[in-house]
């Protein structure tokens, strides 16, 4: 089969690899019909996640069809269409019993495209299938459903729920990429009084406004002052960091009110200074987190009912074999306008204007 294989920082390729086989009775093998690229995959390519070994197939999001199932699998069978969760759960360890699946001690957690071969491939082996794949209604498209693998539960759990957004709150989302936009969409479920989106890309700010941001702010034009003016100097109730660089994290801590919440979603590849000399007396709650995906069934129900505008986050669609081009487009959003790209088996790419530039795959 073909798969997108990581060979070290700046080096990856769509190439032939062996087909996956069942290794444990709880495994399934899924034929990948739809997958996508995550910002975390770009962090891996930059070398920000050094525990990813060369030779690993990347990717942790997919929709597909079960083609083989181990003898212990009870929830799905060959022929079933399923959503692949980005987090694998053994279901038995202390953390899984607390629904903290991202911290699984039994061989799960974020392992796809990290510790084992992932989903940017024609086929993928999935351990602990009963806890880690979800049967899908036929009415939901793969393009919609694949956003429930990672970005929607991540934004909802690590941003919105950790931030404890409540009715009437002023919420600032710093970073209007796919995760930030998903945070805006899911924050609206809690009736905040005002959502402010901060980014440096005009196209992303426009999308943020369309998806529910009440105010948008150019990151280069003093958004901290804007937040202060809109809150009469108090600051925001909740600030969500969805970029993953020191400058944006520090800005979040300056925009939040005393007693407020800073919810960090961004994947940080560099050390960040926590200015406790300025923050120690402000009664702040700071949260970090890896998604647990406990909310996936809830979000799937809302998607089925038409409550989540998931497809509006997708800007580009490719055939599965166009993986390297998709990485190039996704890695240069300022030039290409890419938000979320999806790749579909046996699908021709949408009409996309040719763009110049060095491929992200090195």
Written account of the structure:
The protein has helices at 39-46, 94-97, 129-132, 142-145, 151-163, 178-187, 202-211, 223-230, 246-255, 276-279, 296-304, 323-331, 333-336, and strands spanning 2-8, 11-16, 28-36, 62-69, 81-84, 123-126, 133-135, 170-174, 194-199, 215-218, 236-241, 256-264, 285-287, 314-319, 340-344. It contains 13 helices and 15 strands. It is globular, with a radius of gyration of 20 Å. Strands 3, 4, 5, 6, 7, 14 and 15 form a seven-stranded mixed beta sheet that branches. Strands 10-9-8-11-12-13 form a six-stranded parallel beta sheet, with helices on both faces. The protein has a two-stranded antiparallel sheet with strand order 1-2. 27% of the residues lie in helices and 23% in strands. It folds into two domains: 2-150 and 293-344, Medium-chain alcohol dehydrogenases, catalytic domain (Quinone Oxidoreductase, Chain A, domain 1, Alpha-Beta Complex), CATH 3.90.180.10; 155-287, NAD(P)-binding Rossmann-like Domain (Rossmann fold, 3-Layer(aba) Sandwich), CATH 3.40.50.720. The protein has 362 residues and is of the alpha/beta class. It comes from Streptomyces thermolineatus. InterPro entries: ADH-like_C, ADH-like_N, ADH_Zn_CS, ER, GroES-like_sf, NAD(P)-bd_dom_sf. Residues 8-343 form the Enoyl reductase (ER) domain. This is Zinc-dependent alcohol dehydrogenase family protein.
CATH hierarchy, class of the largest domain: Alpha Beta
How does CATH name the architecture of the largest domain? Alpha-Beta Complex
Rounded to the nearest angstrom, the distance between the terminal CA atoms is 22 Å
SSE sequence, one letter per element: EEEHEEHEHEHHEHEHEHEHEHEHEHHE
* Unreliable sequence segments: 349-362
